[in-house]
Amino acid sequence: MLQMETSLLPEEHKKMMGVLSRLRKDANAKFAFLIDRNGQQMAASGDTQSLDTTALSSLTAGNVAATDCLAKLLGEEEFSVLFHEGERDNLHISLVGKKGILVVIFDERSSLGLVRLRVKKAAKDLEKILDNLKSNGSLSPDSQGKGGDPFLGEITDEDIDNLFNL
């Protein structure tokens, strides 16, 4: 079973929530959340009752991973921003440093330009918080002992099958 690789202190979670709440308000968005590269939700702002946040987080992380592969095929380091436009809702996904993924869901009450503008500031603030996780020892002991990025875990085929009930 997948386990979250980070242990957030209440003060760090509160800071993340503050950034996401401000972003949601300033961008006139319906929902904003931060996930790690495993697809584990770290913080969220908005009415989550109508969303399957677990599936949305996992699928978003998978989308980012697939897009990273597309970028490499084209000789790019990465595509740091993804945008999906729907009939009612739009999905803006942006990378937050090497550790996080910021997701904003918005509708016709906002615009892509406004969301992009507000996301730039929020992403910088969230990146500082995420960078402090490692420096202040907020990472779990198991994740500190692993090589590479402590926010990346091992996802097995069994984990994926369990997630999608295959």
Task: Describe the model.
With 166 residues, the protein is α+β, with helices and mostly antiparallel strands. The protein starts with 9 loop residues before the first helix and ends with a helix. The chain has one domain: Beta-Lactamase (2-Layer Sandwich), CATH 3.30.450. It contains five helices and five strands; from the N terminus they run αββαβββααα. The chain is globular and about 40 Å long.
Sequence stretches where pLDDT stays below 50 over 5 or more residues: 1-5, 139-152
Distance between the termini: 15 Å
Mean pLDDT: 83
CATH H-level name... which superfamily?
Dynein light chain 2a, cytoplasmic
Q: What helical percentage do the residues reach?
A: 40-55%
- What is the number of E strands? 5
Could you say what the CATH architecture is?
A: 2-Layer Sandwich
Q: What is the gyration radius calculated from CA atoms?
A: 16 Å
* CATH first level: Alpha Beta
Given helix and strand content, the structural type is alpha+beta
Question: How many structural domains can be distinguished in the coordinates?
Answer: 1
Core attributes:
Beta-Lactamase, 19% strand, five-stranded antiparallel beta sheet, alpha+beta, 166 residues
Briefly say what this structure is.
With 166 residues, the protein is α+β, with helices and mostly antiparallel strands.
Topology:
Blueprint: H1 10-26, E1 31-36, E2 41-46, H2 53-73, E3 81-85, E4 90-96, E5 100-106, H3 112-135, H4 141-144, H5 157-163
Antiparallel strand pairs: 1-2, 1-5, 3-4, 4-5
Helix pairs in contact: 1-3
